[in-house]
Write a structure and sequence with these properties.
The complex is a heterodimer of chains A (813) and B (328). In chain A, 50% of the residues lie in helices and 17% in strands. Chain A has 20 helices and 24 strands. In chain A, strands 1, 2, 3, 4, 5, 6 and 7 form a 7-stranded antiparallel beta sheet that branches. In chain A, strands 13, 14, 15, 16, 17, 18 and 19 form a 7-stranded mixed beta sheet that branches. The longest helix of chain A is centred in the middle third of the chain and has 104 residues, at 349-452. The radius of gyration of chain A is 74 Å and the shape is elongated. Chain B has 328 residues and is an alpha/beta fold. In chain B, strands 7-6-8-9-10-11-12 form a 7-stranded mixed beta sheet, with helices on both faces. In chain B, strands 2-1-3-4-5 form a 5-stranded parallel beta sheet, with helices on both faces. In chain B, strand 11, helix 14 and strand 12 (326-327) form a beta-alpha-beta unit. In chain B, helix 4 (80-92) crosses helix 5 (103-112). The chains are: A alpha+beta (813), B alpha/beta (328). The interface between A and B is medium-sized, with 24 and 24 residues.
Chain lengths: 813, 328
Amino acid sequence: VLRLVGLWGLRKGSLARRYAVLVGGMTLVLLVSSGLSEMYFGYREAREQIATLQQVQAIAAAREIEQYLRVIEDGIREAGKFPWGQPRYGLQEKREEFYRLLVLFPAIVELRDVDPLGFEQLFVSRTEPDRLGSRLEVDSAEPSTTLVRAVQYGPTFYRETADPLVLMHVEGARRGAHSTVATINLRFLADVVSGLRIGDAGRTYLVDSANRLIAHPRTSEVLRQQDLSDFQPVKRARRAAKEGNTSLLNASDTIGLDQQPVIATAVRLQRADWLLFVEQPRSEALIPALATLTRTLLLLAFGGGIAAFASMLFARRMAAPIVALREATERVAAGNLDADVHVPGRYDEIQALARDFQHMVQRLRESYSGLEMQVTSRTAELSQARDGLQAQALALDSLNQRLVEQLDEASRRKDEAERANASKTRFLAAASHDLRQPMHSIGLLVSLLGDRMHDPEHQALAKKVMQSVSTMEELFSSLLDISKLDSGVVHPNWETFDVDIVLRRIDRTFAPQAAERQLRFRVRPARALVRSDPVLLERVLVNLVSNALRYTATGGVLVGCRRRGDRLGVLVVDTGAGIPREHLDDIFDEFVRLGTTAFDHAKGLGLGLSIVKRSAEILGHDIAVRSVVAKGSAFELLMPRMAYLAVTETETLPAPDAASAVAGAFVVVVDDDEENLRSMEALCLHWGCSALCAGSTAEVLAALEQHLRTPDLIITDYRIGDGDNGFDLISRLRTAVEEPVPAIVVTADVGTDLPLRAAALDATLLHKPTGSAKLLAAMAAALSSNGSEAQAQPAGRHHGLGARGGVERSEHR
Amino acid sequence: MHIGRMAYPFVAALVVLCAALAAGSCDGWILDRPVIAYVGYLDAETDAPFQRFKDALRRGEPELFRRARIEYITGSDTDDASLTRTVRAAAQRRPTVLVAPTGTSAQIAARVAGPTPVVFAGYLNPVRAGIVKSMRVPGGHITGVSQEDWLDGKRLEILHDAFPSIRSVAVLTDRSWAEHYNGPARITADAQRLGIRATVLLAQTQEDVDELMSAPAAALFDAWYVPPTYVAWLSEAQIIRHLQRLEVPGVFGTTRDVASGGHIGYEQDTSFVWPTVARLVARVAAGEDAGSIPVERPRRYLLAVRANAQDRFGLISAQVVRRADLVY
């Protein structure tokens, strides 16, 4: 269909297609509307014509039938005009007149002359012998008995012949004259109804008052004696007649006698209560209407085709200049400014549009030429700028190269410095380890020696030796601390705690020393929560206070706190010699000592403030110094202050008498150094302990088999020869005795994993050199923790805030 | 070549169309060609009723006459058993319709034709003869035209009106009339009512007719009444010759006898019979059930007289001539 209407040449969505669809569609709509209305009204007119025609046919048929009957009536009535009963007008003459009627009217089967009393005087028949003067009383069962007035028709009846018969009663011409009753064979009406042509297949039929078919073009239909009371058209006609309607059935769509759809019309015969029907098959009756419909459809199709074709041509012609314009704009859009826009043969707005568009292209072309020149100029400028930038980029590359080389050099130097620093740290660690071993032995032996000397002079000497040893231990400890701080193994353990706990410990630690030197020492209590590591903080404060006491000859030392915004400043103020301004930046370096007093030279090592500085840096606390020569100094450590909350005081309770705590304990001592081993054995015996000493793991296991008692404490060196170490020894001994025996590991190593391993075994880790007092305290603590193991956590899990020389448990920061 | 290729579909379509038309033609002319079997007693050429049937078929149903094959089957008019075999054999060939033109053949066909449709014509009362169940709905597969005739009294009356001096009448008929219609009793009663003496003479063959009418006693009758029987139809010419020889009037059961020389004829319209039979045959051939088609009867009555006939009773009365439908 699209091909036929020419839409194949139009792209979908194109303007021409839209025009074609719009114009063609509107035309088709108009055509279809017109055609439909034409068909509708044509159909209506055809139905009206059918109705009119059928009405005329029915009325004509009814008149013809009535005319047929009226002729018979007239004949009989004419015969009654003779002066019957007079001379020469007897029965014989009347018989001959009746025979004349029989000859004239074949439908008359019988004629009967009835006197006014209802007796038959003459009977003439086509089939039976005649009766003259019979004076038979007319059979009361005969329908005619009730018909004694004027010309009337009785009901239809049948005899053996099955022909429908009806009695026609014709009253005499004069009053009191005989009447004539004629028996009419209604089959002769078939000649009338069959002579009425209703199309090719239409027919006319007659129904009597009892709704029986009495006349039909086909005789056999009448012979069936059909009762049509239930026949739909008859019912409708009877109902209409009863309602008094003049139009009984007027071109109604109904079912015919052949049970086919028909259009039927019915009229009522006035002479008798008969109905005459005219019916015609719908298919035949509507042929003119269908022809009109078909013709209209054909015209519609033809007109639609013409309209589609014309709309196509119109649309193409109308859209052609617009399409040409669009193609031109497409070429311009593609950059072809030489495109020519020309719409020939038009002198309308399209032509004007094309002309304007041509001007616009011309202007564009000119603008484009100017733009090209500008672009060329700008391009040249940009090229020059680009060359300059390239030169600058080369210079920058050179500078960058040098910078990279310098950075590499700086990095290399930094690596060298770090390596040197690490080397120094390793050296310090190794040196302190190697020096600690003999110092440890010296300390133990001098202590034992001092206890055994009774001569006061000897004891004084031993005491001096012990003081020297203590100074060296302090030196080594300081060096070890700096070494650990520099090696990065120390990590703060952040807690929120009451700073007053630390201050009280400081007070208890240094109050005796200050009193000994007759200095005033005051620690002002402060209730403030700070965020810091209590152990490192205490170490810092210990060094600051120790330093202050060391450099104060008269006066005193004050420790107190002051709020600094959201921070808390812990102040250590002394009345010492003070620090010259030019040395304020040097006092935190290693081995820097100020002042010239013998006292200071003997005590100071120059490491305390270095440890303070490193520890404060690890904690992130700022430290400030103010000092006036000959007046004193003030160190302030600033730390984050927290909102105050009730904090359980966890200060370590004063230790009980350590010697009594360890007395009687069975102690296993293992050290591959024979001298250390004997020193430890002597100390244990001195403190009242039973000691089992061995140089290796195998030896101590073998020795334990000789004892029935389970050890109460294990003291072992970390390195015990043969690749063994103290932690393995503890595990094997505990396995052997099947009890978690408390243990102390003494080592000169500074490995970062040692505290973790000690914590894993719930053992106490002591670093050499270890004084006898520290060792005794550790032993007491280990034994006491074992005794209260069921009630308390291992001591290593409490805050180990002991001052230097106190017990350090699980120092794993 | 291009034209040839383009023409190929049209040629193919034309061939298919011709084939379809040929099939349709075969369907109408050959495959469904109806067969009408007519049971007669003579031969097709000399059987006047058969010729009238064909003529009626040609006139009334030309389409059927053109398509149908009409077979004439000769049966015996004297041997009922032989006629029965003939009718049965004809029915077994399953013609489209079997035409039985007499009362006897109709009785036999109704009995032996089975499902083969039968259209009959005859003077017997079809209900009483057992041919149909009723005139309105025949039943079985049979219908037809009944010429049942009860006009004997009327004919005697017409004879008496035509020749009032007649006192004796010979009734020439056959046994079938006598038995089926109770003819002798009825005709005697009707004659007595008219003051006439009626004598019934039975004849079955033409020889019987010759013998009866040639006998000396035949001259004793004032007139003759010949009811419409088979023997009367068969001996029509002989009877008329004998009446002319005897110079006595005769009244016949058909108007055809008057045309052949008889004096008076009164009949039911026999011209109605063969067109009606032809129409019924066409309806049955079109597929309508014969048993549902009512039996038809003639509706007209015809009186024919020969006005110029001279015999020993003189001319026919004028009043009868006035009644006549046909005057010779």
